[in-house]
Specification:
With about 290 residues, the protein is an alpha/beta fold. About 45% of the residues lie in helices and about 20% in strands. The strands form two sheets. The chain has a five-stranded parallel beta sheet with strand order 3-2-4-1-5, sandwiched between helices. Helix 9 (about 230-250) crosses helix 11 (about 270-285) and helix 10 (about 255-270) packs across helix 11 (about 270-285). The protein is globular and about 70 Å long. The structure holds S-adenosylmethionine. S-adenosylmethionine (SAM) binds near residues 15, 89, 93, 117 and 118.
Length: about 290
């Protein structure tokens, strides 16, 4: 007799306040054959709180590859599996992506059971525009990488959202102010928890406040930054045109296209990726 392929449930759990778990999440976690989680002790405590006794198996960034294959086999054998993270929505800056693809490849159903996710909670409470936003996960830990990433995003006409750690938030705010210029921003800390704090101010003020913090900043943090202003966008379009013109001149002088781009990026203090982005934007604007 042929067995039916199983189902993978992607179950969101709370980001702090246990009351944020959904009825459907509890029912799914109680009914599946197996729960794959990042930390069995952490999820064990959550299950105990809700009186759920389902078997747990670890699935985290260090065993993701092998575990995903094993779990894929279990799905083929018809098991139902729930994937959870330590907090919030699995796959959002947490493991899961690989398992979802394996499940799809082996013909299992993939069922989202939505709920809390920190960046959405921060965005809606920020008061910054929600019509278009860009979620960038964690900014690079090193200053040069972080500044390059911010430079790439500078002209994006969308609210920018990042996850940040307490020991890097002051540096991230300083770099955001230096690279993006003055903008409204929000630091959302410990969302849904006892010490929830949502501070909104211009980037320069936030950078100063967090640099001067007498006690080490604690807890979990989301950083939300307002989009580029129309003036900045216009300035950006000018600089895109400047790049295109400068590259054209260099090419006329005999520079290879790649060498010309590298030289212009260095002259303008941009990463090569950002210079290339501006160049293609200028060229497509010229074509339209
Ligand atoms: N999967 C999670 C989600 O759906 O939001 C995100 C996991 S990511 C590894 C952890 C980061 O999310 C933290 O470092 C912090 O930046 C953010 N985060 C999680 N819970 C939070 C909370 N209660 N308040 C503020 N930020 C939070």
């Amino acid at each position: 007799m042929q067995r039916m392929t199983g189902t993978l449930y992607l179950v969101a759990t709370p980001i702090g306040n246990l009351s944020d778990i959904t009825e459907r999440a509890c029912r799914t976690l109680a009914e599946v054959d197996l729960i794959a989680c990042e930390d069995t002790r952490h999820t064990g405590a959550l299950l105990k709180h809700f009186g759920i006794k389902t078997r747990l198996i670890s699935y985290h960034e260090h065993n993701e590859r092998e575990r995903a294959a094993e779990l894929g086999q279990s799905l083929v054998q018809g098991m139902s599996i729930a994937l959870v993270s330590d907090a919030g929505t699995p796959c959002i800056n947490d493991p899961g992506f690989r398992l979802v693809n394996i499940a799809r490849e082996c013909g299992a159903r993939v069922v989202p059971v939505p709920g809390a996710t920190a960046f959405v909670a921060a965005l809606i409470a920020s008061g910054l525009p929600t019509d278009q936003f860009f979620f960038g996960g964690f900014l690079p830990a090193r200053t040069a990488g972080r500044r390059a990433r911010l430079a790439e995003l500078k002209m994006m006409p969308a609210t920018l959202i990042f996850y940040e750690t307490p020991h890097r938030i002051a540096d991230a705010l300083r770099d955001a102010h230096e690279i993006l210029g003055e903008r409204e921003a929000v630091v959302a800390r410990e969302l849904t928890k006892l010490h929830e704090e949502i501070v909104r101010a211009p980037l320069s003020e936030l950078a100063e406040k967090f640099a001067a913090a007498e006690q080490a900043v604690r807890g979990e943090i989301v950083l939300v930054i307002d989009r580029t202003s129309l003036n900045e966008q216009a300035a950006g379009q000018d600089s895109e045109m400047d790049i295109a013109a400068r590259i054209h001149t260099l090419e006329q002088e005999g520079f290879e296209p790649r060498a010309a781009l590298k030289k212009v990026a260095r002259e303008m203090g941009l990463t090569r990726a950002e210079a290339y982005r501006r160049l293609t934007a200028a060229r497509s604007r010229n074509r339209s």
